[in-house]
Amino acid sequence: MTTIAPTERAEVAAACQRLAAQGLLIGTAGNVSLRCGDLVAVTATGAVLAEVIADDVTVVDLAGQVVAGRYAPTSELGLHLDVYRTYATQAVVHTHAPKATAIACVLDELPVIHYQQLLLGGATRVAPFHPFGTVELADAVRTALQGRQSALLANHGAVTIGASLDDAAESALLLEWACALYLDAMTIGRPRELTEQQQAAVVEVALRTGYGTRKPLDKDTE
């Protein structure tokens, strides 16, 4: 069996502190996990996420059995494990971020109104409401995440995934920004959505120019 190093448990704790500082994790509301092979480091139930340290992070196997840690894992463990069993992702972040949750109380889908949302895979679907910690909620989130890096949970919050914990955290921040943007735009009028053709054009330009990646200057141009 794979072992999870203290540094990986510390990475989960650091992500919690970062997201709490940004206002996305409030009190004990939310949970974060990081997969390492056949083990998962995940926040404990009842943990004050702004104060989590590595020793507070629980380690489970993919069947949900605790293999290390002092506390029971989050009540949303099933949701995290369901995502790992279905998608090739290494991290899951679940927040009750205020702007994302507000959108999830109203819309059935957050449309693409800014091209940065394409980093999340496009429009963010809203999974139907089910009580927390249930198989039904895990199923709904898994479906909403298909082909996406983010999902909203009706009247509940948001979930983002990523190839690393940094990626999943960045997606959570981006989703909250996109939700805030939508809400701000709504104070003026109905936001104009980007068409599929416009989205495709953005993708083409991004791929052609290497948008979002650092490029060293050619020595001849320095």
Outline of this structure?
By secondary structure, the chain is an alpha+beta fold. The protein is built from six helices and nine strands; from the N terminus they run αββββαβαββαββαα.
Describe the fold and architecture.
Residues 10-183 form the Class II aldolase/adducin N-terminal domain. With 222 residues, this protein is of the alpha+beta class. The chain is built from 6 helices and 9 strands. It has helices spanning 6-21, 77-86, 98-104, 135-144, 165-186, 196-209, and strands at residues 31-36, 39-42, 58-61, 66-68, 91-95, 109-110, 124-127, 150-153, 157-162. β3 and β4 (66-68) form a beta hairpin. The model has no long low-confidence stretch (mean pLDDT 95).
